[in-house]
Amino acid sequence: MKEKLNELRQQGKNIYSFSKLGTFKNCEYEYYNTYVLKKKGIDNIYTLMGSELHNGIEQIYKNELNIGEFKKGF
């Protein structure tokens, strides 16, 4: 998967995550500030919890964390 993404990037293709697409759908101005101007907005509970969940799930997939540890820590 990473190889394919790197290949697409080398070809000059844009890669869009669900997060980027969701931001664009919800508010084009927020997308512009976040992804074009690189202005980081103020964190809210959804951002913080989403980041924690995302990081934990990524660690589980990389076998760096087991589900039980994740649940206990979360």
What does this structure look like?
With 74 residues, the protein is mostly helical. The chain has two domains: 41 residues, no CATH class; 33 residues. 69% of the residues lie in helices and 0% in strands. Helix 2 crosses helix 3. The relative contact order is 0.07.
Structural class comes to mainly alpha
Uncertain runs are: none
Indicate the mean pLDDT: 89
Q: Helix and strand string, N-terminal first?
A: HHHHH
Give the fraction of residues assigned to helices. Answer: 55-70%
SSE layout and pairing:
Layout: H1 2-10, H2 18-26, H3 28-36, H4 45-61, H5 67-73
Helix pairs in contact: 2-3
Brief digest:
Helices cover 69% and strands 0% of the residues. It has helices spanning 2-10, 18-26, 28-36, 45-61, 67-73. The chain is flat, with a radius of gyration of 16 Å.
Give keywords.
2 domains; mainly alpha; 5 helices
